[in-house]
UniProtKB/TrEMBL annotation:
A Pfam family: Oxidored_FMN
InterPro entries assigned to the protein according to its UniProt record, in alphabetical order: Aldolase_TIM, FAD-bd, FAD/NAD-bd_sf, OxRdtase_FMN_N, YqjM-like
CDD domains per the UniProt record, alphabetical: OYE_YqiM_FMN
Organism (species): Streptomyces cinnamoneus (Streptoverticillium cinnamoneum)
Protein name: Oxidoreductase
Highest taxon, organism lineage: Bacteria
Amino acid sequence: MTAARVAVIGGGPGGLYAAALLKRHDRRRDVTVWERNAPDDTFGFGVVLSDETLGGLETADPAVSAAIGEEAVRWDDIEVVHRGSRLVSGGHAFAALGRHRLLELLHERCRTLGVTLRFRTEAPPAAELVRSHDLVIAADGVHSRTRRSHRDVFRPTLTPHRCRYIWLAAGFALDAFRFEIAETEHGIMQLHAYPFSPRASTVIVEMREEVWRRAGLDRCDEEETLRSCGKHFSGLLDGRPLRTNRSAWTVFCTVVNERWSHGRTVLLGDAAHTAHFSIGSGTKLAVEDAVALVRHLDRTPAVPEALAAYEAERRPVVESTQRAARASLEWFEDLAHHVGRPPHRFAFDLLTRSRRVTHDNLRLRDAGFVTAVEKEAGIPAGTPPMFTPFRLRGLTLRNRVVVSPMDMYSAVDGTPGDFHLVHLGARALGGPGLVMTEMVCVSAHGRITPACAGLYAPEHERAWRRVTDFVHQQAPGTAIGVQLGHSGRKGSTRRMWEGIDQPLPEGNWPLVAASALPYRPGVSQTPHALTPGELADLREQFARSAQAAARAGFDLLELHCAHGYLLSGFLSPLTNHRDDAYGGDLPRRLAFPLEVFDAVRAVWPAERPMTVRISATDWAEGGTTAEDAVTVARAFADHGADAVDVSTGQVVPDERPAYGRSYQTPFADRIRQEAGVPVIAVGAISSWDDVNSLILAGRTDLCALGRPHLYDPNWTLHAAAEQEYSGPGVHWPVQYRAGSRKPPTGRKA
């Protein structure tokens, strides 16, 4: 028997359920739960559990599952109330019950099984308990003493966020999960509410810290808080009072631990991880942790190995949930950027905020709701949002799909060859609205590698003309754009598959940059800080390449000011340490990139659009922020940029990106709303469902996809076929029309 004697620190749902399962699976176990509060002490009101979680409970312990099932209230609808409209979306399948009642059920189950429950008793430290127990489960919550005592092992990161919230309750049952927005004289407040019994509902009121202070809620006692919240959400309450349970305003904190176990001590639930209440219940994650932990203890003879297997199973699930929760909480933190959308699009934006609920998923749940959103957005019936046209200056793209710039490292002395013709031509035939070249360099010394493409010699222009002619003749309706750039301090390296960012073994050329700072200290070459005369020469190089690009027949030009290359190096405070007119505060750091943009725009044909790619954050302390990115985007728009291609990072090697599904999209969304300029979203957008969701929610105007187009050059055509769309937003080459229906996967005899 693994773990014959077990101590559980914390008598919340996760700790109690783990104790009950351990005892149920082997009655010989000695299991003790320490809880410093009384049995009927609890904070908050309702607990939401998904159908998936309830199914897991049924398998793990049918008795607990049946007890919860008898008492849980269920509903399918989500209501969104904003600016006088109340919109309802169905098919969401929620279940909830009171937290107090859940604890009672778990207490009863533990007693029936023979678990020892010690209430009003502070648990001994884990380091002491482990001397007399085979296993110590630390389920002691977000403020875990165990985690704090062993922080050198667990290595926690606690991230507080920007909103204040409070758990309240109403003495009546809602019939839906309700989101309500109140635009007050103090700022925006939001309400999250749901039923947890036939006679009561949880009510969470949340707002930005500054709104909370302006409203005077930081100075209110309990009764004043109830009156203030009731006033701001009087439509829901209709004169009925709110109540508290020792409720206090608090700031949500995301908890992440590098390790979840230490010897025979393991973290569970909020002690190990937290996820914002707007997407899921911490109780849900905690009981799922308990199920996995006990399963591995039963399967694995040694406790440390069982704890490692538990973490290996649960960590990816938790990290995925935390990514979605972070997207959700940041959406609410930035609610001011969203409230101006029309009612149905606002509701759609809210429902898809975590990027887990999507256009297609929502259509399956409530087709009528999605149809109403599309109608409000002016999308023709039967047309997926991704296949609507978009106009940039004199260029109309037939759909919203862009083949993202991807370096191929296959040019010879800067000249693109057959590979580029086939690579770009194949993707143009695949149906996107716009195909972008890789970064095309404005000089030989501006290349990243010796195999990078250029536009600084007559033979380059002729070779690119061969590519653009093919696209225009063989893929009519697909536009082709060129991305112009200069590698700066990231140049003179090997091709990616030979050693990314590694200097050439021989034949290195001198590098230039905003400041004399190597990209990788001790590895990369130290660049020369550009002089005023050299800056003037660079402006001319960009302008000459732009003229060549126009003659080569490109439909759109993008200026590369991202990813730590030359122009990006001027924008970031981490890479620009100049003390002249091109360094210092953001307006000065913007000066040279804007001069280059102006020089290019002056020679680029007036009817053809010009975009700029930026890194909206450096993902590093002291670097470019989201607020800076709005300023940068607005400046380029004021100088004539028709759209901003919003990427992030790759500016400094010690960056820490928050990767996840379409993780860069919030930066594009913010720029679109605040700077009022069209945007191209990029980064981990992998499905046509993602594209439809982002376009319909109003978070972006175009979506750029890289890796999906490497996997499938016909990605856009296949997206049309899978959605049974054959309208003007997509063009099947006549040679490919026989393949415009998805082939059957098997045949019946």
